[in-house]
Design brief:
This protein is mainly α. It folds into two domains: about 30 residues; about 35 residues. The protein is built from four helices and no strands. Helix 3 runs antiparallel to helix 4. The longest helix is centred in the first third of the chain and has 18 residues. The mean pLDDT is about 80.
Amino acid sequence: MVHGWEWGVPMMGLMWLVPLLFLVVLLLALARCLGFWPGALDRGPQTETPKEILDRRYAKGEIDKEKYEEMKRDLNR
């Protein structure tokens, strides 16, 4: 046998996989860049309202009920 010939026939049958995989990766990257993929585009920071921030801080226990009520009154002025 010629050196390397034993791998020639099976490998030739699978050579189409390399360009196919490259094409799939390229299309997935393009889809992500164009926004067709979930979470693809950074929509920037999600802004919370002052009331939502206050509610979150109270829920996390960062402030007590008295401080929460005081700050909520200040927001409603």
